[in-house]
Amino acid sequence: MLLKLAWRNLWRNSRRSLIVLLSIVVGQIAILLYDSLSAGMILQMLDNQIGAHVSHMQIHKAGFNDNQILQNYLPDAERVAQALQSDPAVAHFSKRVICFGILSSATGSSGINMIGIQPEAESQITDIKSSMIDGQYLSGGRGEILIGKRLAEKLDVSIGDKVVAMASKLDGEVGSELFRVTGIFRTVDSEFDKTAMYVPIDNAREMLGLGEHLSEFAVIAKNLDALPDLKKRLEAQLNASGETYEILTYRELLPLLVMQVDVYGQAVIIFYAIIGLAMVFGIVNAMLMSVFERIREFGVLMAVGMRANRLFRMVMLEALMLGMVGTVTGVVIGYLLYLPLASAGIDLSAFSEGLNSFGVGTTIYPRLFASSIISALLVVPVIAVLAAVYPAMKAIRLTPVDAVRHA
Hints:
407 residues, alpha+beta, six-stranded mixed barrel, two-stranded antiparallel ribbon
C-alpha cells in the first residue's frame, strides 16, 4: 500500500516530476556517452600503438629498451624462440632487428628507425600489412622496403623509387644499402609514419653485419589476462642459464598510455560526481516542494495513526521511484544511442591532424562496458535516496496539530 501511495504522490504534480525525470534521463545519457567515448578513445590509442609496432610483449637483452644499440643483441635467440614455441599462452611471435639510421632519396634525407622483420610472421603481430595504401607488402626479397606515408612525402618518393639507408654496423663502421620502395603504409600514428621503415630481416642483418643475431622478439599472447603469468614463466626459464633477458609487456613499454587508461577510471568518477551533484539539487528541491505542499495531508495522516517511520519511508520511496524510473529510461535511451555510434564510429576527420599526432585515428569507436551500465543503474537511485533524506526528515518533524492548521 505504501508503494502504491508513493507512486500516486509522484504524479500529483506531474509537471514537476517530469522535469526532474528529464534531468535524470539527460544526466544518464550524458554519463553513458561520455564514459563510452572516453573509453573508446583511450583504448583505441592503446590498441593502435600495440598494433602498429609494440605488440603484447617484447623480449630483449637486459638494458636494450633504454639503450637500443646493435651491440645489445639477444645472447641466445634460438633459446628464446624455443621457449616461445613451447608455451601454450603464446599465439604468435616474430623476430626483429632494430637500429637507427638515415634514409636518403634524390631530394632529401631523414632520420629513421629501421626494423628488419620476417614478413609473414610480422603480419601476425602488427597491422602494417593491413595498413598498406600503395604498392605491395614485403615478400622477403633483397632490396625491398616499406615506408610510412609521411616519410614518403618528406623524401618525395613513390613506389619503385630508389632510396639509400645508412646505419652504424655491429663493428662500428657505417653500413649502407640501396633499396627500392615496394610499399607505402599509413597508420593512425603520424609520428610513427614519419620515422618507421621495414626491410626483410636477412637484408638488415647483412647490411649491419649482425650475422644470425637478433634485437628482439615481438610476441602476441592468446589472452591479455595471461600476460603476467607468461612473463613470469619466460623470465624463470630464460634467466635460469645465467644470461639476463628483458621481458616487457605493453604496460611497461607504453607507461603513459596505460596511465591514461587508469586515470580515465578516476575521471569518470569525477564526472559521475558532477552529474550526481546536479541531480541532488534538483531532487532535493522537488521533494521539498512536494513536502511543503502536503503539510496538512501529513498532519492528517499522523493524526489518524501513521507512524513517523512509515511517513519517512513513503517520502524516501517517492524519491527512489523517481530515480529508478529516470535511471532506467536514461540508460535505455543512452544504450540505444550508443549502438549505432559503436558500429559506425564518430567521424572526426576535420581534426585528423591533431588526432593522428596522438595516435587515435579520425574515427572514434565508443566502447561501453557492463561495469559502466551497472554503475549508472546504481549510482543515481542511491543519489536520489540520499537527496530525499532532508525532505523526509522535515516531514516527520511536523507535529500533527500544527500541520493540520497549516494554511
